[in-house]
Amino acid sequence: MSEKAGVADTVGFERLSEYRYRIPRQGKMRCDAVFYASRRILEDLAAEDYASLRQLMGVATLPGIVEPALSMPDIHWGYGFPIGGVAAFDPEEGGVVSPGGVGFDINCGVRLLVSDISREELADRKARLADELFRSVPSGVGRGRKDFRIGRPDLRRLLVEGPSWLVERGYGEPGDLDGIESRGRLAGADPDAVSERAYQRGQPQLGTLGSGNHFLEVQYVDEVYDEEAARAYGLHPGQVTVLIHSGSRGLGHQVCTEYVERFLQVAPKYGIELVDRQLAAAPIDSPEGRAYLGAMSAAANFAFANRQLIAHFTREAFARAGFGGRPLRVLYDLAHNNAKLEEHGARRVLVHRKGATRAFGPGNPELPERYRGVGQPVLVPGDMGRYSFVLAGTEGSMRETFGSSAHGAGRKMSRRRAKKAARGRDLIREMEQVGILVRAAGRATVDEEMSEAYKDAAEVVEVTDGAGIGKKVARLRPQIVVKG
DNA sequence: ATGTGC
Predict the structure, then answer these.
(1) Which residues bind GMP (predicted)?
(2) Per-residue pLDDT for A6 more than 50?
(3) Which bases of strand B have any atom within 7 Å of the beta carbon of a protein residue?
(4) Is A195 annotated as a binding residue?
(5) Is A6 part of a structural domain of the chain?
(6) Is A388 annotated as a binding residue?
């Protein structure tokens, strides 16, 4: 399929460079859109009749957008905004905030822990560790935890303070906070903008994984591409790592649901014309916009705290499995579903990243000193059978994508199709035969999350690296997978 | 993603 077909039929894009394409402003778009893709990714986009690129064009119609509307190489169809979408809005130009531009799982993200344990040491205790982790980190839809209770007044404080509230009470180490994006605390969190129902749903779920694509993986570093960055991050071949992927659970979901509804009601009042109801938005500088941002930031702090507590119980599981006294340091905790006020091109803009990560380049004062020379760690989880990647933010991401990069492999099959493809197979056994132990709350999720249901993360990473919006640092191979 | 449809 050539890009010509795209021009003629529907979307109309042009190639800017090997991996970079532009959709010129057309129809109700207020600015151009730019997307990153390989020829192969382009074929995937064509196969879905450019549905996700059309969503990106919809994003470009929203008021106050700062050009261009962007998507990362892992773009796929999502609620309103495409997953992999990045869009910045200027509050002084009537810019909007959109819950669909953040996602239902507010501040979903990944945290990478690094140990001094070798792959060989892990081999001796792998089954034991898998069992301990599965016991220590509840997973599955609606699951809570019984051994950690937080009262309402404390939860309110946690929504404002994030993981520091936990660290102060012994759930973690003081150094943990240095490795979290924004130190795990988004400013402006408003616990009063979070509904009673959201509190109720979130309260028992702190320290739980959830379901779907969420996971906890024990891995090892099997390849290093950039020695200098790997050294700065403290990564070396054969080393055991832990990758935690989870978000704000029922609390964030409830916040998103309620504000989408509210924004739909008020959009006419602000003269916002929506080409798609799922793009529901309100001005950043409006009572509704401010309330959502307050609630979203609170949910974000809850998600950071959730990963903090999961990391705490992960450390306990490692100790019980015979790795007592061995450190598990936070390399980085990075969100991929949020909206943040940032300075770009001497303007203060609200950057929505929906299935996209922050990827600040070298020298950025936001970064911990030890990473400042090489740029921010960018974590790109792959599917559960293959590999995940660590990249570094670049000058290119700062210049082209409001300091953003890709967040993962992206689905290739629908959940329904994956389930069908898994019929008659025992995926857990297949994984075990290649040395990956799976512990899951249910088999259905494992089927839906099968390796073949995902695009190859390596492809996404090649495009990201090739386009210069992220730099390959290391590859991680799974050994233990805990799923919902 | 999600008390996996109101």
Answers:
(1) 213-217, 336-337, 381-384, 388, 407-410, 483
(2) no
(3) 1-4
(4) no
(5) no
(6) yes
Query: How do residues A336-388 score in pLDDT, each as one tens digit?
Result: 999 999 999 999 999 999 999 999 999 999 999 999 999 999 999 999 999 99
pLDDT at A329 over 90: yes
Q: Which nucleotide is nearest to A246 (CA to C1')?
A: B1
Helix (H, G, I), strand (E, B) or coil at A380: strand
In this complex, the residue with its CA at the shortest distance from the C1' of nucleotide B3 is A142
Rounded distance, CA A91 to CA A310, Å?
Answer: 36
Q: Closest Cα partner for A198 from A259, A157, A140?
A: A259
Query: Which residue segment(s) compose the domain that A436 sits in?
Result: 14-483
Which residues does A417 contact at the CB level (< 8 Å), separation at least 6?
Answer: A453
Nearest nucleotide from residue A441 CA, by C1' atom: B4
pLDDT, greater one: A429 or A2: A429
Residue A303 lies in a domain: yes
Nucleotide nearest to A337 (CA to C1'): B1
- DSSP H or E segment with residue A44: helix A39-47
Q: How far is the CA of A225 from the C1' of B1 (A)?
A: 32
Residue at A3 is within a domain = no
Average pLDDT over chain A reads 96
Shortest CA distance to A87 belongs to which of A33, A51, A45, A42?
Answer: A33
How many domains does one find in chain A?
Answer: 1
- Amino acid A288 CA to nucleotide B1 C1' distance, rounded Å: 23
Residue A384 marked ligand-binding: yes
Task: Band the pLDDT of A10: cuts 50, 70, 90.
Answer: low
- State the nucleotide closest to A105 in CA–C1' terms: B1
Distance A204 CA to B2 C1' (A): 15
Per the domain annotation, does A7 fall within a domain?
Answer: no
A266-287 mean pLDDT:
96
* pTM exceeds 0.90: yes
Residue nearest to nucleotide B1 (CA to C1'): A105
Catalytic sites of A, residue numbers: 407
Helices (H) and strands (E) counted in chain A, each on its own, are 16, 19
Determine whether the annotation assigns residue A450 to a binding site: no
CATH number at residue A423: 3.90.1860.10
**Is A6 in contact with A47 (CB distance < 8 Å)?**
no
